[in-house]
Structure prediction request, 136 residues.
Amino acid sequence: MSYQITVRHEERLVQVHITGAMTLEVIRSFADELLQPPYIDLMYDVLFDCRPADFRDLSSNDIRSIVGYLARNAGLIPDNRHAIVVSQQLQFGMMRMFQLLVDDNPNFTCQVFYDEAEARRWLDEGPGADAPRDHS
Prediction:
């Protein structure tokens, strides 16, 4: 498995750290996991750290497939924010394509960032921003 999911209750955040090859199978695996208890019940924002991931084997058709999967499961997706942190142009381009394609899903608000601190600020400004978060 090339990802790790961590729940940070004090931050009201689910963090997904992805390493190794980013493939359709990897994305489907953590998407399936996030749509199940206990994660789906938390209603927390999600921070995807893709900086260590290798996107060379991820295609635009893979991105479209994931967007289709999310559209088919739109009723399960809680209304929260999803920040995607990247470190390379290829990662940014692929995740921006993803962001633009999921714009039609009102429950899946996402933004792509190079800077984790900026991503966390954006998450803090979203729905539920009045709930206390501890970033220490």
User: Anything to note?
Assistant: The domain at 3-124 is CATH 3.30.750 (Transcription Regulator spoIIAA). The chain has a mean pLDDT of 90. The first strand starts at residue 3 and ends at 8. Strands lie at 3-8, 13-18, 20-21, 45-49, 53-54, 80-85, 108-113.
